[in-house]
Please model this.
Amino acid sequence: MSAALKQKKVGLTGNSAVAYAMMQIDPDVVPAYPITPSTTIIEEFSSYHADGKVTGELITVESEHSAMSASVGAAAAGARVMTATSAQGLALMWEVLYIASGMRLPIIMPIVNRALSAPINIHCDHSDSMGARDSGWIQLYAETVQEAYDNTIMAVRIAEESDVLLPIMSCQDGFITSHAIECLELIEDKDVKDFVGEYVPKDTLLDVDNPVTMGAMALPEFYMEFKRDQSNAMTRAKDAVSKISAEFAETFGREYGLFESYKLDDADVAIVVLSSAAGTTKVAIDKLRAEGKKVGLLRPRLYRPWPHAEIAEALKNVKVVCVLDRADSMNDFGGPLFGDVRSALFDLDTAPKVFGRIFGLGGRDYKVVDAEGVIGELYKVLETGKIEQLNRYITI
Amino acid sequence: MTKNNTMPHGGTIKSGTAHDYSTGGWRKLRPILDRDKCIDCLICWVMCPDSAILTEDGKLTGFDMEHCKGCGVCAAECPDKIKAISMAVEEDL
Model:
């Protein structure tokens, strides 16, 4: 066990930690356009660039559509590419997101989650990356600054795994995590470089001795086979996340799974929630556990691909589940996480009752008292056996 | 690549395959060369967006009708004093 590898304990914001990880990774090319709340990632990375602490190219482009287009071009040329964005920036990248994943380019993109307009709002919710959940990008969601830092490093390996080769979004909550200073352990530069290794692209446009065409057409005869191959790679990405997270734990001592279970083993009722809200929920769970209530939490870390079988296994003995979504699908059937959890549980012999609550949109606070309210609702369903409202807004 | 086999990774294929794919079928206008007027300046060869100007030994020999879209750039770019290329309507030919 080499977990004794030297690490220094510091206080940093989520964005500073991710910028630091990017400096340590030192990707070949970073095309980027600033947008709140991800701006300081690129701002700090550009300082590292100006100070000569990184050797790669930083391209300041004219929009996020250009940032992702330049990322695709650089990755096709064989470069290890990173960029970062939020909200409207991610929305503007939309068209090119699908090109990156369809061309199997392992671009690494930290996302700082922020609400989409309108009304215009710069604060946290997950409507930006949830909208991109079907774009063929792997998605990790971090609860803390430490995890945002660690996920950024692991994301490189996951995306570039030889049987995966897909782009990846490493998400953290805007402002709540990105701008809050937390204590974390930073890995030594050399150890990060050793862990991520050198990227050897499968194909490169710059190999003039072996000229290739990338991004060519595939009409009805072949398009579907390409999509099947891409879909299979996404299936394999789940095992890659497990494998690389295990290697990370072995090397640096911090363990991460496909999801985090908190006091779930004997739980009668459970909350499923992504990212920073899990921390608040744990405080409420501790409080109600002290009162004898059997409450647990499941926090998915990997959202795309969706580890449905593992999540069903983890929740199979729970009687009532509430899924908290920080985004609304605007479909009269709750948020995206609700649909995915409920569907994953459908084949269980004794599936838990599942209801959904939309919370914290546009940076609305989610407090311990809100989590307690949800737990109260869970117990009401546990006692009556009836879900009065399948979905509704809370924290409102 | 065959239908039931795995596709080339990410759609990356050998280069130059567009040459083997005929895309001239929806042309409405066709370039007509007046060989007597042409001075072989090859501005049309430079400007053609589809590499459809055929040459041999530095002389313009004709047009690649499998790839020409009939855009008329060659006719427009042909020097004003020469005007060796005109565009004819396909259905009139």
